[in-house]
Amino acid sequence: MPCLAHTLQLTLKDAFKHPSTGNVISRARSLVNTVCKSSVATEKMISKCGKTLIKDCVTRWNSTLNMVKRLLETKIVLNQVLDELGIDTLLTSDWSKLEQLVKLFEPFAVHTDQLQTDSQSLSEVVPCLLNLEAHLQSSVISKPLDQIMLKSLRERFAYLLNPQAADFDATPAAACLMDPTVAFALFTTEMESLMKAARSCDLQHAAHYSSPLVSQQQKSSVNPQCPTSASAEGTVLKRFKFLASKVGAELTPTSGNTTGNAGSTHTELSTYISKLKQGKVCCETETPLKFWQNREIVYPRLAPVAEDFLAAPASQAFVERIFSVCGQLSSGRRNRMDTSLEQRVFLKMNQKLLLSISTNN
To answer: Domain HAT C-terminal dimerisation, which positions (predicted)?
Structure first.
């Protein structure tokens, strides 16, 4: 499976290749380069607003979006500086186009940041993709560009979203179903085939596990029917607002009467899904992993499968970044280092945390 965060960025690059987008981005980049090369312009920017423009880099994710956002953020001050120095600014139509592009690309940047962290579970992949798809379908910003990005998104991620694809992999969808906080993404008529593939994948993996024997002492501390609080549900829907808006009425809890003492994996899975549709998912204080740990007696066959899926990271981006740091620290220019490589990598990866601790102290 390719890196999901990297593939998501390729969808953005497809959008940048569109003439209407590429031309305005090129003009914005040219203006940024002109200002950054001028020490006078840079000093004036810092003195007036305390900020400088950001140059983008083709190998750095979201850098083009950050460049455009900084341009818009400093637009008034920038135009004042350009006027003082006799440098031409962008056209009014260009500024308007950049504002539209930020609205269109912002959700992609948000989900890229989510998927490239080490704390994001594989279960978040399908909801992120469906949320972006819903965003593009509902967008009225630039219809031709919306359709280009939607087509690119569906083609590049067909192996995760389309069960009819030759290289389809149901693992992320199965992980999504096992996450009670985001499983609603599969509870739509449109996702019926993906839901079926996810169920099949979960059942296949469950067949490799034997039913664990859990002591009655653990059962006394389990509350298998802890309903979701409004604030917890609201937090989830806020993260996937475009998808939640699209799903709409299908998120309404349904009635049902099932028991958790299942005699088979099929019954356990049906019971779990039924409770999700009734709104009986994890409490506000429960993480998805904690949800399954607290219900190992109720779902003895499903719990090991869910814990395996939820423990998998959403992408390889964070691991690749660690290898990159190791390569930089052990390259030829630093080949006389002692055995402190592991400590140096640790300090590098936790630099922000260490700085915040020292600041608080």
So the answer is: 281-341
Decide: 288 and 181 in contact? Cβ < 8 Å. yes
Q: Specify the number of domains making up the chain.
A: 3
Q: How far apart are the first and last CA of the chain?
A: 44
Q: How many CB atoms neighbour CB 189 within 10 A?
A: 7
Is residue 343 over pLDDT 60? yes
Q: Which residues make beta-bridge pairs with 313?
A: 121
Residue count of the chain: 361
Residue 231: its pLDDT value, please? 43
Cβ atoms 299, 292 nearer than 8 A: yes
Predicted local distance difference test score (pLDDT) of residue 16:
87
Q: Are 276 and 299 in contact (CB under 8 A)?
A: no
Where in the sequence is the domain holding 99, given as residue range(s)?
Answer: 4-116
Residues 293 and 233 in one domain: yes
Distance in angstroms (rounded) separating the CA atoms of residues 332 and 47: 41
Residues 290 and 162 grouped into a single domain: yes
Tens of pLDDT, residue by residue over 279-336, are 766 556 678 888 998 888 889 989 999 999 988 887 766 666 666 667 666 666 555 6
User: Domain check: are 156 and 170 in the same one?
Assistant: yes
The whole-angstrom distance between residue 15's C-alpha and the CA centroid of its chain comes to 19
Please state, for a pLDDT cut of 70, what percent of the chain lies above it.
76
Closest to 236 measured CA to CA, from 181, 184, 198, 288? 181
| Res. 234: pLDDT tops 60 | no
CA atoms of 89 and 77, how far apart (whole Å): 12
Q: What is the mean pLDDT of the chain?
A: 81
Which residues sit opposite 121 in a β-bridge? 313
Residue 90 in 3-state DSSP?
A: coil
Phi and psi at residue 248, in whole multiples of 5°? 55, -120
- CA distances, 58 to each of 29, 71, 322 (Å): 12, 18, 20
Cα–Cα distance list, 55 to 32, 94, 180 (Å): 6, 18, 41
Query: Is residue 145 domain-resident?
Result: no
Whether residue 94 is found in the same domain as residue 161: no
Closest CA to 198 of 218, 173, 181: 173
